[in-house]
Amino acid sequence: MAAQTSALTGKYCTTCHSASMKAGGLVLAGLDIAKAGDDAPVWEKVLRAVKTGQMPPPGVPKPDGAVVKNVTHWLEQEFARQDRTAKPDPGRVTARRLNKAEYNNTIRDLLGVDIRPADNFPADTAAFGFDNIADALTLSPALLENYVDAAERSVRTAIFGPEFRKPAAVHFSAPVRINDSRGTTYKNRDFFNYDLTGLSTLHSAHFIHRFPVDAEYQFRVVLNGHRPNQSEPARPALFIDGKQIHEWEVDATDLEGQIVEVRVPVKAGEHQVSTSYLKTYHGLPPAYGGPDPSKRPPEPLITPRGKLSEKDIETLRKFGTRIKTDAIETRIDNRFESLDIGGPFNQTTKPSEASLRKVFICGRAKAEQTPACAQRIIADFTRRAFRRNVPAAETANFVNFYTLARKHGDSFEEGIATALQAVLISPNFLYRIERDKPDTTRITDSELAARLAYFLWSSTPDDELLKAVGTLRQPAVLEAQVRRMLRDKRSLALVENFAGQWLQFKNIDVVRPDQERFPIFDDALRLAMRRETEHFLANIVQNDGAVTDILDANYTFLNERLARFYGVPNVTGPEFRRVDMSATPRGGGVLAHASILTVSSYSTRTSPVLRGKWIMEVLLASPPPAPPPNVPTLDET
């Protein structure tokens, strides 16, 4: 068969792929097919080109189909045979530095504090579309300084509580939608079936904000828009992570510039803050035909034309700028102008019980503050931080920091903090190091546990996974651990980090579609697009779904805003829920998701070329070649 393969390439391939022509940068002349293993990358490229029909190219003679089938089958078998007989040599594994997401998650799980210290680090360098490629994760002097600061801040937050922060304000501007209801008719509109929370409406406002500490925060909302004359008061509301926190009542037909405020306690961390109007279509004048119509008299509040009467003057004194003076208001376009978040006020300064339990495993009472307890605390923390069993001699290096601090008169807690900070700036923590072994084909159970944890959770192994070290290679144990880890909420990191970079839907955060062509696109719709893909993939991961569902599922996850954008009926409310898409032309796989379609388009229009390139790169791992240098770009026509 080797002779037949050699004859085929000599007849159909070597003319163009000779040493002189080098078509496509490929030279086949002089290669011995009997030693295909010595030039495996070349022959694998030949195999792909022949199997896909790319070679021989159009316009030149082609070999018989049966011959091609025999040759390609033989090549595949030959590669498989050589792979079986070759001595495995994976080479050395590069020490892999924790990227920003991994560092944040590891600190959270080690110390029980979710302060995301790596958010202030320089951006990680991506390679091949991912930000956890070892060769790209270098360590700069600036980053080393960041590590020292982050270690101190993280440990002291866990042991002594969060640092005191001075109040500051953050301003968010709502999307500008000026008078987009002018001239709108409300006849035949369904005022009875709609999202009563208002979170799915076009004029709701949604923002992502990180609250640094547990404390009270001041929310100042500037309203805008209009409400029909003699309606019941508007009811703007504040939501955090979809839960209603506060509701106001604003009796006005002209909402522009009206301000409402509230101060409420908020837990530290990243939260979605939303403002909306509750029951927008309730309490309208009876002429609108909506639910719970207003019981106020239908007459105008003031005379819109001519001289003001005594009653008009009295009404203006009462309502001021909250009513229109030049016309009778008929529009329904309650909206928002901005949101300001101020704080923290009355912040929590004590450490959390969860973080204290993670650190002080033998207690904090005065009688328990012994050198033996300190050694036990440091040994346990070092084992968890280094993701392996640590010899006593190695642990002693960090116990010395505790001892030195105590000799200088520092407290027990200060001594522990000093030792733990030293652990967090050790290369054994900052890097995942897999040491050279005589048998290069196997990694240790500890290294396997670390690989599992950082792939599925983007975080460190937990105690249960570390307890399995020694039996982790047993198929039943390994499967049980993987299934347990996938059911854990931390597996959402697999969707956000791995899938978000693989499918590139994380880029939806920075895409800016043209507002003139797509006026309904705003941050709320952007967030809904991303959430659809995240919920969809998380459902597959956590419920052991079929991997083929990624492309050909007959379902997806929608809320009212995204369903309305897709034209899918009978989805009401801001909550995402599973929706059967089998009866729709859109379908449910990721190729139909708005997040994927948006990142594979131009800002002004769709692009089959970009989407085809996305499919070749992301799904087929076969990116198209770069265009020849002498080919100009196509005109935008």
Written overview of the protein:
The strands form 4 sheets. The protein has a 4-stranded antiparallel sheet with strand order 2-9-4-7, with no helix packed on it. It has a 4-stranded antiparallel sheet with strand order 3-8-5-6, with no helix packed on it. It is flat. The protein has 637 residues and is of the alpha+beta class. The model has no long low-confidence stretch (mean pLDDT 87). Helices cover 36% and strands 11% of the residues. The longest helix has 21 residues, at 65-85.
Strand numbers in spatial order across the main sheet: 2-9-4-7
Q: Taking Cα atoms only, what radius of gyration do you get, to the nearest Å? A: 32 Å
The strand count comes to 12
Content-based structural category? alpha+beta
Q: Number of helical segments?
A: 20
Helix proportion: 25-40%
Please give the structural blueprint.
Elements (H helix, E strand, L loop, with lengths): L1 H11 L27 H12 L13 H21 L10 E2 L2 H12 L29 H20 L7 E6 L31 E7 L3 E10 L11 E5 L2 E5 L11 E8 L2 E9 L32 H10 L15 E11 L7 H7 L11 H16 L5 H16 L4 H13 L2 H4 E2 L12 H12 L6 H5 L7 H13 L4 H11 L20 H20 L6 H4 L2 E4 L1 H7 L10 E4 L13 H6 L8 H12 L18
Helix pairs in contact: 2-3, 5-10, 8-9, 8-10, 9-10, 15-16
